Amino acid sequence: MHRINWEFWKGRRVFVTGHTGFKGTWLARILVVAGADVTGYSLPPPTEPNLFSHVGLESEIRHRVGDIRDFSALKAAFDESCPEIVLHLAAQPIVREGYRMPRETYEVNIMGTVNLLECVRLGSNVKSIVNVTTDKVYFNDERTDPFRENDVLDGYDPYSNSKSCSELVSGGYNRSFFSGMQIALSTARAGNVIGGGDFGYDRIIPDCVRSVFTGQRIKVRNPYSVRPYQHVLEPLAMYLRIAESQYRDMGMAGAYNIGPDGEDSLSTGELVDMFCRKWGDGAQWESCAEAGAPHEAGLLRLDNEKIKKVFGWRARWTLEECIDRVCGFYRLWNSGGDIVAEMDYQIKEFFNDTQL
């Protein structure tokens, strides 16, 4: 179920890190629609164009630009917002960037988490924290069975490994400080997300969109890699459900996988086939494997039984329905249409809630 108690979020003070990114922008927009009092702390948007600037969110929230590694700046923004709920999305999120800049990746993903949790520890108002990590936190031996929350954490590459460490930092703060402070902390391990407005690099849907906008063939590095693809609103809905549930009951806190059912764990080539079919206009792709490319997992699936059991979760949209909405969104963007209205429409459609 994806119903949200919108009355709970109305006026609620929420601190969001990484709010200028693709997922962060969608999350901030949901919270604005819900009437929350939102403070965002992040670097400037990471791409040009970008969804955050396009929809003008900086005028609708308390928008603070800063580096998660800068503890003084982070604490000033945090203290100013006096949050009750913290949603931590700020990260260096790209596997290949992690290989190129390992030191920065570890600094952002580990010390950024430490800095934020220190702000919480030194404050007095937070009751609920969700640390957003990744499906790549697990020790991946390319097994066919999906990963469960109690499997070993030991990501292979600097990005994945640093997010595993972020999970361990969360556990350490939880046991050492937060359990005695009546602060609930969960980690959320989401699968690969797709959706309108993503212009990130080394991400398959943005690569598809850039290619079709310029009339080029889509180049796919790893067409046989299997990933748990889902619409961006799926994990965002769960972050909000987890945050609210553990705010009311600390016993709801824990580690949660957020991924699709097995049929939506597709190879990248199958996903691009679907995109080309939905987009039309002669869209095509070709494999372009790189010699000497850094290691990336070939097979990754998540077990989602825990969120089904605890929250009664089920996927809202099939992958076919996701790609329909993705293609419609980018066509609207390319034609200069009303993107804010489209975001709000998809949010209301997803939550199927007449209160919005």
Shape: globular
Question: Strand count, sense and closure of the main sheet?
Answer: 7 strands, parallel
The value of Rg in angstroms is 19 Å
Beta fraction: 5-15%
- Taken in chain order, the helices and strands follow as HEHEHEHEHHEHEEHEEEHEEHEHHH
Distance, first to last CA: 16 Å
Identify the strand order in the major beta sheet: 3-2-1-4-5-6-11
**Can you count the helices?**
13
Helix content: 40-55%
- Determine the structural class based on helices, strands and strand pairing: alpha/beta
> Averaged pLDDT, please?
95
Low-confidence runs: none
| Topology, number of strands | 13
Description:
With 356 residues, the chain is an alpha/beta fold. It is built from 13 helices and 13 strands. Helix 4 runs parallel beside helix 6 and helix 6 packs parallel to helix 7. The longest helix is centred in the middle third of the chain and has 24 residues, at 158-181. 47% of the residues are buried.
